[in-house]
C-alpha cells in the first residue's frame, strides 16, 4: 500500500523524532518529546527499517492504562520481527500512556483526568493528554501510511474479540481497510461510520486518509498470553496485507457487525449483569440489575433492541451514564 516497493530503492524512515535505523536494522530504545507537559516521560519504541522500499506502518498500544494484551504483543513483535525481511518501515509504540499504565488507571491519564483516546486532535501546549494526542497524531500518524491501534476491554470490562474499521467513500481506502480487517482475523468485524470531528487516535487517523484498524482483544485487566498470541498472529497477517512482511495473507472469515447499541446505566448502583459474551438477546430481555448498597432494587436494565452481547461491564460499582452492555447487530 502507499508507495510500491521499487527494486533497489532504499526504505524511507519517515519518523523524524527518532534516529533512523540503518536499512535492514532494528532500533529498540526510548524517546522523549520536548513539550512541557511531557517532560520526564520516556516512551519505549521499536523502529524497524527494511532494506527494500515499502509502506510505513505504525502500531500503537497502551493508550488506556489497564489494557495489557496490546503492550505484551507489541513488545514481542518489536523484539522478534526480522528487520531484514521488512519492506518499508515499521514503528511500534508498545506503551504510549505510561502515566495511566503505572497508575493502573482504566480510562484517564493521571495529571489531567482526561481520557487520552477522547483528547484528539490535542494541542501542543495542552495538558499531558492533549500534548500526547497532538504528538501521536502529527509525529507518528501523519508520516505513516497505516495505523493499527491495540486495545482491550478495560479493567472492568469483558469483551468478544473484534476489530473496527471506519466507513469511507474512498473506494481504494475502503478496500485496504477491509483487507486489513480480514487479515487480522478476529471473529467479529465492526464497521464504524465515517469519522466526523474524531476524538480518538484511530478516528483521527482514518479522517486523515490512513489505512486504519482498531483492535479489541481480551480485557478485565488480564495480561493473558493467549490474548497476546491472538494479537501476534493478527498483526503478522495484517503486516503481510500491508506489504510490510513477505508472504500471502490468509484472511479469516469474520461476522460483520453493522450497528451496535450502547446500554447506559440509568442510575448509580451495584451492577449485576445477567448476560454472557456473545449471547443473543431480544428487545426487552433482562440484561442485569442495579441495586443500592442495601440490596434494594434501583433499576432493571433491559435490552432496547435485539443483538449480540459484544462487551459488558464486570464492575460491581456502576455510575449513572456509564456503558453497561454493548449489543451488536449483524
Ligand atoms: Zn482502550
Q: Which helices and strands appear, and what pairs or packs with what?
A:
Blueprint: E1 25-31, E2 43-49, E3 52-61, H1 69-80, E4 87-93, H2 98-102, E5 108-109, E6 114-115, H3 128-141, E7 146-151, E8 157-159, E9 162-166, H4 171-184, E10 188-192, H5 201-207, E11 211-216, H6 225-241, E12 255-257, E13 259-264, E14 269-273, E15 280-281, E16 286-291, E17 297-302, E18 307-313, E19 317-318, E20 323-329
Parallel strand pairs: 3-4, 3-7, 7-11, 9-10, 10-12
Antiparallel strand pairs: 1-2, 2-4, 5-6, 8-18, 9-11, 13-20, 14-16, 14-19, 15-18, 16-17, 18-20
Helix pairs in contact: 1-6, 4-6
Bound molecules: zinc ion.
Zinc ion binds at residues 63-64, 67, 151.
Beta strands, count: 20
Class based on secondary structure composition and strand pairing = alpha+beta
CATH topology of the largest domain: Aminopeptidase
What's the name of the CATH homologous superfamily of the largest domain? Zn peptidases
Query: Based on the structure given, which CATH architecture of the largest domain is correct?
Result: 3-Layer(aba) Sandwich
The CATH class of the largest domain: Alpha Beta
The amount of beta strand, in percent, is 25-35%
Mean pLDDT, rounded to whole units?
Answer: 95
Number of spatially distinct domains: 2
Amino acid at each position: 500500500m502507499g508507495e510500491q516497493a521499487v527494486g533497489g530503492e532504499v526504505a524511507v524512515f519517515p519518523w523524524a523524532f527518532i534516529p533512523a535505523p540503518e536499512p535492514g536494522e532494528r532500533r529498540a530504545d526510548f524517546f522523549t518529546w520536548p513539550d512541557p507537559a511531557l517532560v520526564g516521560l520516556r516512551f519505549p519504541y521499536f523502529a524497524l527499517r527494511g532494506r527494500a522500499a515499502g509502506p510505513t506502518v505504525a502500531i500503537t498500544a497502551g493508550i488506556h492504562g489497564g489494557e495489557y494484551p496490546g503492550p505484551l504483543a507489541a513488545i514481542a513483535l518489536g523484539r522478534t520481527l526480522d528487520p531484514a525481511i521488512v519492506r518499508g518501515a515499521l514503528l511500534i509504540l508498545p506503551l504510549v500512556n505510561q502515566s495511566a499504565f503505572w497508575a493502573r488507571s482504566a480510562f484517564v491519564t493521571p495529571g489531567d483526568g482526561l481520557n487520552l483516546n477522547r483528547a484528539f486532535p490535542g494541542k501542543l501546549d495542552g495538558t499531558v493528554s492533549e500534548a500526547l494526542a497532538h504528538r501521536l497524531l502529527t509525529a507518528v500518524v501523519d508520516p505513516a501510511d497505516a495505523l493499527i491501534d491495540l486495545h482491550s476491554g478495560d479493567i472492568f470490562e469483558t469483551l468478544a474479540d473484534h476489530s473496527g474499521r471506519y466507513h469511507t467513500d474512498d473506494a481504494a481506502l475502503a478496500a485496504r481497510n477491509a483487507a486489513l480487517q480480514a487479515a487480522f482475523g478476529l471473529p467479529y468485524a465492526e464497521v464504524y461510520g465515517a469519522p466526523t470531528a474524531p476524538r480518538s487516535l484511530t478516528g483521527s487517523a482514518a479522517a486523515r486518509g490512513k489505512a486504519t484498524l482498531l483492535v479489541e482483544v481480551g480485557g478485565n485487566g488480564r495480561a493473558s498470553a493467549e490474548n497476546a498470541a491472538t494479537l501476534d498472529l493478527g498483526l503478522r497477517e495484517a503486516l503481510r496485507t500491508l506489504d510490510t512482511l513477505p508472504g500471502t495473507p490468509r484472511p479469516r472469515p469474520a461476522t460483520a457487525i453493522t450497528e451496535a447499541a450502547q446500554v447506559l446505566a440509568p442510575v448509580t448502583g451495584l451492577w449485576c449483569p445477567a448476560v454472557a459474551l456473545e449471547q443473543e438477546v431480544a428487545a426487552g430481555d433482562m440484561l442485569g440489575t442495579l441495586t443500592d448498597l442495601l440490596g434494594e432494587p434501583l433499576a432493571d436494565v433491559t435490552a432496547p433492541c435485539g443483538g449480540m452481547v459484544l462487551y459488558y461491564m464486570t464492575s460491581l460499582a456502576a455510575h449513572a451514564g456509564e456503558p453497561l452492555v454493548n449489543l451488536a447487530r449483524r
